[in-house]
UniProtKB/TrEMBL annotation:
<dbReference type="InterPro" id="IPR000192">
    <property type="entry name" value="Aminotrans_V_dom"/>
</dbReference>
<dbReference type="GO" id="GO:0004375">
    <property type="term" value="F:glycine dehydrogenase (decarboxylating) activity"/>
</dbReference>
<protein>
    <recommendedName>
        <fullName>glycine dehydrogenase (aminomethyl-transferring)</fullName>
        <ecNumber>1.4.4.2</ecNumber>
    </recommendedName>
</protein>
<dbReference type="GO" id="GO:0005829">
    <property type="term" value="C:cytosol"/>
</dbReference>
<dbReference type="GO" id="GO:0016594">
    <property type="term" value="F:glycine binding"/>
</dbReference>
<dbReference type="InterPro" id="IPR049316">
    <property type="entry name" value="GDC-P_C"/>
</dbReference>
<feature type="domain" description="Aminotransferase class V">
    <location>
        <begin position="151"/>
        <end position="270"/>
    </location>
</feature>
<keyword id="KW-0663">Pyridoxal phosphate</keyword>
<dbReference type="InterPro" id="IPR015421">
    <property type="entry name" value="PyrdxlP-dep_Trfase_major"/>
</dbReference>
<dbReference type="Pfam" id="PF21478">
    <property type="entry name" value="GcvP2_C"/>
</dbReference>
<comment type="function">
    <text>The glycine cleavage system catalyzes the degradation of glycine. The P protein binds the alpha-amino group of glycine through its pyridoxal phosphate cofactor; CO(2) is released and the remaining methylamine moiety is then transferred to the lipoamide cofactor of the H protein.</text>
</comment>
<dbReference type="Pfam" id="PF00266">
    <property type="entry name" value="Aminotran_5"/>
</dbReference>
<dbReference type="InterPro" id="IPR015422">
    <property type="entry name" value="PyrdxlP-dep_Trfase_small"/>
</dbReference>
<dbReference type="GO" id="GO:0030170">
    <property type="term" value="F:pyridoxal phosphate binding"/>
</dbReference>
<dbReference type="GO" id="GO:0019464">
    <property type="term" value="P:glycine decarboxylation via glycine cleavage system"/>
</dbReference>
<dbReference type="GO" id="GO:0005960">
    <property type="term" value="C:glycine cleavage complex"/>
</dbReference>
<dbReference type="InterPro" id="IPR015424">
    <property type="entry name" value="PyrdxlP-dep_Trfase"/>
</dbReference>
């Protein structure tokens, strides 16, 4: 497929804007020395170009999208309708408070609702992404220890199965990262945890359910041990989809949490946004929350705030979508979301584990992890090959090679919005691929064969990305 610059023809164009009737003389300093290199293309060809791009893409609207730990699920259209209302879209964060009372009510209502769901006492919506929510939570922990004169706590404990953003966020916050191992059940090794706890421990970062899709059976013991050592417990809310409305992190020992509104709470995500990673906390940490907030309809700022982590009040329209999602489902529907997510994952796991060994053969939560290590050794077909083969069945690949504690891992998250018929089709696809692995492994390794673009050189693309069009090459031709 040609790039839009390759479709460009000098002199072509389209009349989108009316003729300018205002003249403003700009100073020379901000002016370009030459006109920008923009493609010259007719409206007809422009429409065709983007239509072809859309057809070449694969998303939730195209079919099953079991991308593990990312909760790529259907987002009800009513959320988009509400987020498109002029009263929400045509506002500015600096306009007088009495002119945006409906908007402040949205923020305050969502704050109270999410605190009730998570068992937290207060929350900020400033963080614009999950990783930024992690970073904010760690800054709260750091501010807490500093306020007590306990600045010798320099370590954050993180399990070896953690999301990659956890150690990165801890390092950004100035902490030393201590990795503890998982046991044979895929959960935290309590002996290893005990060995690393001490006066140097600032806190523990934990996802529960964890990244192998299991709820840690020792969670109360884990949080108790960390607290007894003087540390705080941080809950990574990336996998809250499995327990929302059923388990409140604040009730099982967690002091601070971040949520992904763009995942669990039904806002489209991927491709860079929009995102929102609000950070909630218990009362004793609320004094450190960042930026200005809306509390009981009033604008306020925490007494010992860590400062802003992003502009103004956060990604407001994502909040509108999240509140719409929660109000639509109600107190009865929210826990049903979690139950369906867990049911769908266990259904698929049971239907596939006779062919694809699961990393931990037990009841899973919202996702499960298969290990293709034995298949790779016997048939030279990798997890990557199976993921690519799914594209020929119209299925987006699941997460590959994560978590790192599972060799040749494929992580599948069906989400709660998929029907049994869709799951059965996906199961049939996995089973058909397995039969092909047995009969013709080389054919699987050559997948995909029906997509517009076949197997890519992903290593080369990552190491030598081409991020802009080379106009010099065009002139040379």
């Amino acid at each position: 497929m040609k790039l839009i610059f390759e479709r460009s023809v000098p002199g072509r164009g389209q009349d989108i804007f009316p003729e300018c009737d205002v003249e403003v003389k700009l100073p020379e300093s901000p002016l370009r020395e030459k006109a920008p290199n923009l493609p010259e293309i007719s409206e007809n060809e422009l429409g065709r170009h983007y239509t072809k791009l859309a057809r070449a893409s694969r998303g939730v609207n195209d079919g099953f999208y079991p991308l593990g730990s990312c909760t790529m699920k259907h987002n009800p259209r009513i959320n988009e309708v509400m987020a498109s209302l002029p009263g929400f879209t045509r506002i500015h964060p600096l306009q007088p408070a009495d002119t945006v009372k409906g908007c402040t009510e949205v923020v305050d209502t969502l704050r109270k609702t999410l605190c009730e769901i998570t068992g937290m006492d207060d929350m900020t919506f400033q963080p614009a992404a999950g990783a930024q929510g992690e970073f904010t939570g760690l800054l709260l922990i750091k501010a807490y220890h500093k306020s007590r004169g306990d600045e010798g706590r320099k370590e954050i404990i993180i399990p070896d199965s953690a999301h990659g953003t956890n150690p990165a966020s801890a390092a950004m916050a100035g902490y030393d990262v201590v990795v503890i191992k998982s046991n044979e059940k895929g959960m935290i090794d309590l002996d290893d945890l005990k060995a690393h706890l001490g006066p140097q421990t600032a806190g523990l970062m934990l996802t529960n359910p964890n990244t192998v899709g299991l709820f840690d059976e020792n969670i109360l013991e884990i949080t108790r041990l960390v607290h007894e050592a003087g540390g705080l417990c941080y809950y990574d809310g990336a996998n809250l989809n499995a327990v929302i409305g059923i388990v409140r992190p604040g009730d099982i020992g967690f002091d601070v949490i971040h949520l992904n509104l763009h995942k669990t709470f039904s806002t489209p995500h991927g491709g860079g946004g929009p995102g929102s990673g609000p950070c909630g906390c218990k009362d004793f940490l609320a004094q450190f929350l960042p930026g200005k907030r809306v509390v009981n309809g009033e604008y306020t700022q925490a007494e010992n705030s860590i400062g802003c982590v992003t502009g103004f009040y956060g990604n407001f329209l994502v909040m509108v979508r999240a509140l719409t999602f929660l109000l639509t489902n109600g107190s009865d529907g929210v826990p049903e979301l979690a139950k369906n997510a867990v049911l769908n994952a266990n259904y698929m796991q049971e239907k596939l584990k006779d062919l694809y060994p699961v990393a931990y053969d037990t009841t899973c939560m919202h996702e499960f992890v298969m290990s293709l290590e034995s298949i790779h050794k016997e048939k030279n077909v990798s997890a990557l090959d199976v993921a690519k083969a799914l594209l020929d069945f119209g299925i987006h690949p699941p997460t590959m090679y994560f978590p790192l504690i599972v060799d040749e891992a494929l992580m599948v998250e069906p989400t709660e919005t998929e029907s049994r018929e869709v799951l059965d089709n996906a199961i049939e696809a996995f089973r058909a691929i397995y039969k092909k692995i047995i009969d013709s492994p080389a054919a699987v390794a050559a997948s995909p064969v029906t997509t517009p673009i076949k197997r890519l050189d992903e290593v080369g693309a990552a190491r030598h990305p081409i991020l802009k069009y080379d106009f010099s090459q065009e002139k040379a031709e």
